Amino acid sequence: MSDPQKYERTYSFTDFQTGNPSAPLPGIQVDNELENVEQSLGEAIDAIKDVRRSDGKLKNGIVTMDSLDPTVASGIGSGALASAEAAAASADAAAVSAVAAAASATAADISATAASGYASNALTSRNEAETQKTLAQTARTGAQTARDFAALWSSAPENTNVNDGVNPVGKSAYHWAQVALDAAAGSIEDGSVTTAKIADEAVTLDKLASDVIGVVDAKADAAATTAALAEKENLLSAATSDNTLDDTDEVVYLTGTTRKRGTLSGLISSIFKTSRTIANAQFAAASFKLFNAAGTPRALTFDTTALTADRKITMPNADIDLGVLASFGSTGEITLSSTAVDITGIPASARNLTLGFSNVTLSAAGQPILLLGTAGGLATTGYLTAAGGQAGSASKATGLSTAIPVGYNAASPGPFYGVIEFQRIGLSNAWSYFGKVTTSGGGLLNDVGGIVLGGALSQIRLTTVAGTPTFAGKVSLDWR
Fold this sequence. Notes:
Layout: H1 13-19, H2 27-51, H3 70-73, H4 78-121, H5 124-155, E1 161-162, E2 170-171, H6 173-184, H7 195-199, H8 210-237, E3 250-255, E4 258-263, H9 264-271, E5 276-278, E6 281-283, E7 287-291, E8 299-303, H10 323-326, E9 329-330, E10 334-336, E11 341-344, E12 352-362, E13 368-374, E14 377-378, E15 384-391, E16 394-398, E17 404-405, E18 416-424, E19 430-439, E20 443-452, E21 459-464, E22 471-479
Antiparallel strand pairs: 1-2, 3-4, 5-6, 6-7, 7-8, 9-22, 10-22, 11-21, 12-18, 12-22, 13-14, 13-17, 13-21, 15-16, 15-20, 18-19, 19-20
Helix pairs in contact: 4-5, 4-6
């Protein structure tokens, strides 16, 4: 297989956190980085399995001649031939020595026989005979010595040096034959080259090829990792199972490579503290947020900045839809100071409107009216209205199709007090209204009617039929 790829980080979470201090880490980028780490570790583990058996030894057949250092390879394979040749040369030398010894012995015997014959023939030959005898004895001794060394060169035990005083010191033919037999029998036995052999320098690191050293280093790293995992597994297996944690119970955790312990209450206090953001929550000095699931982040924020004392929210024994609260709205008090007042911002979802009048007056007598409108403008036709006024025994009534009359008392400048209620019919754009307004002198003004608009109601205008008197006082509009 190809070389495993080193893990290289492709995304800076520090840069992201600097630019987005209150946002959670981007899940997609976290997954990508973890997948890259997983792929790199997987390739490294697969690479280790290519050279390592389950019993921790090298796989059979993976250490080839090309994997070995030349000095190691010289004693294996083709190197065995050289050893055998050296053994043959030693055997040849022994054979030559043996022939020479035999020749010397024969010559000695001949010389001794001749010397004995010559002694009987002439006294003068005696000295020569003695000399020849001495030479023969010396030759015989030399032959015996050569024979002994020939035997050593041939069959001295393994790893025993042979020194005949003539040839360079060396090993016997038997030694080199055994080396050749061992080499011919195959490679070095599995497990025979141990760390102890390296430690006692029987096999030094410089005798190993660089890739073999790499395997040794990798196995050492793997052994360290395995030991660390075993330690964690032992720690977990020795623990008693208990899911009822108390505040004073202690748990073990790591900070980098430092093992620490802490109480449950202490860990919780350190998690839920000011300026802490975790996966789905953020805690600040006067607020906290709850985040939704992955994707475009949305958060529900609880802001307690305005509190001056502890407050509580009491829940009823029922399901609560907070969306209902969002449907209420109000303009608040609107102070009148012109001939016409436009009330805008009415939401399209509004179903009920309440328009209140408080001490509303006109700069001159006139008939107040209301115009309803959509985003496209105010409606000036299509109204069906009825308005009446009662003061003592006198009564008045009127109806308009161009606007909604606020009561009927064209001769009164106010002040006016009262309320007009508007009701939307279902989800349509049809509106009905009913109201009661009182004016100076105790008169009671009643209003009722309705209109179908061309779109969603979004505005109401308060003015007069003449459009010239100026209003004063206050009004407000509430909706739900």
